[in-house]
């Protein structure tokens, strides 16, 4: 072997994960102490280190350095307690200060208390108590804490956890983020410090100068000031409340949009817009809505409904304009209408029914079908129709029809004849009950009336031409009419009236188009296919900070000592509610029963970079399984294991004997990445031991197992 080859081998060994890990576990070293004393009465088995006038006590282990005014060093347990102006530094990444720190060189877990501040290049954590796990590179507090992240703001919560390698925070309970642009309140809040991305779960609010958003599942980009919400969500935007299955907002553009089952409430104008897609522009004070768009406006003790392919509302509340485009309709209990386009002006009180020019000359509705209104028994058409309301009282006042004005109503007795009035222009007045009371038709007026006496007996059919006509209505029937500048006219007995003369030129009875209910507004629409909203995954709590791996480290740190100092600051619920049971991870051992499976060699690695030497596959025939019996009658169990491979298998905690009851089971769709699985069971207290089972192993299944643990849970 030449020198160059030997040098490369030594270099690789020096920087291999195993060597680095072993170096980090070496003994705590005393770098400096002003004075060293022994006090067996108060600190048995320990060295008491104190500072001098020159500098603090300095200790180190691997890449970690710690300074304090006083330190108690238990060399046998590789454990230190540091008091007074404590400072802990790891490399150039972690800088933590506090009044007190205790640190185990075996577990590499630090516990700090008293004005704790932990800084890394991304953020600063402050809390009264803090745990720092060097192995996992995680920090954790459970008694309130504060995180400061430059422009992203300040975050406070009851519980917080920092995953340093992922630059991810997970906050739980009473979470509040405050920065110059937004305040966020949430129950569960995941935050990535490098991107500024925040994920909110549970009842949450995002308050900015532009909007206030409520959601129970949402996302917010604290840097770009935009986000979306996908569960029970509302955006308060100016004087509007926006609801929908999926909401998006961008405060830099003063813009919000909504998708599927939308409801936009105007709190000032007392209107509601519905549909399946909407956009709101705050700067323009505008709302655009489509896909079964419907606007409902309250008027007096009634409501008016407007529907179209697209509806746009613009302007300030006192000067708001509603524009409904294409196949537009309105419906009120005593009034309905239809046009290619309907425009309504809040300030003037004018609602216009008009037809728009289309590119296609074959568009039947646009070129032949005129705007139409129905009031009581009257049908009114014309090239353009204006409804005029009193802006203050919102009561209908009058009606204008421009060009080709045509009123038609059925004769109430015969039900076969039609009263008809035609002219160039129509003016109508409504009474206090919103019923058409008086109509004046001017210029080239023509009329056909079924004239009746006081006994409602038909006198004859009146047909005439005149300069203008004035008519009084009562409940939709013609009560009185007056012609001015009559050109000609005759009253014919019905039997002598020519059949072909019973309809005026341009007659178009369109009763089948009349909306008689809210649902009728949509009867001509094509079915709407709503897009599938992917949204966000449901909230999945991370594994406990004091998981089984950490508790095992703590357990091992104290196994040779009467008092396990490494465990004394572990929360009671972590140390007392769980107990690790004996479990053999060697699948070749006799404790594992194996049926219809093959165990073959492999050179894979486990999640910690160690070697995996065995891989499990099913045999060609049958469904294989393997199980591990727990020789203890345990009522509440938690089994965790890491799996990696291909195929679909099942895991279960099962009764070992009797009827082999499945206490709990789970199907696993294996992946090529290591993944941790957990199953919890409540077992029958019948004297039979439980067993852990992996089953339904087919010939197409191939997988590895690593790090399986069995935990006895305390009774709830």
Automatic annotation (TrEMBL):
Keywords: Signal. It comes from the Bacteria. The keyword Signal applies. The keyword Signal applies. InterPro entries: LPS_export_LptA, OstA-like_N. Residues 25-186 form the Organic solvent tolerance-like N-terminal domain. This is OstA-like protein.
